[in-house]
Design goal:
70 residues; 3 helices; 0% strand
Amino acid sequence: MRTSTSDRVQRHRAALRASGLRPVQIWVPDTRRPGFAEECRRQSLSLQGDAHERETADWLEAAGDRADWQ
């Protein structure tokens, strides 16, 4: 007897829950949306010269481990 896809998914999710996991849904920006790149540029330019942004960028530079990056 064949099981439906939804039955298999339900069993798989039940097994994950039984092992102590829970589902989480994450919404992220749609990078394919028209205007996305322009909005990124606008926001980036608005931070030019911002002291807090400079402080954060300096911290990231110091904290980052790029030894094995190519």
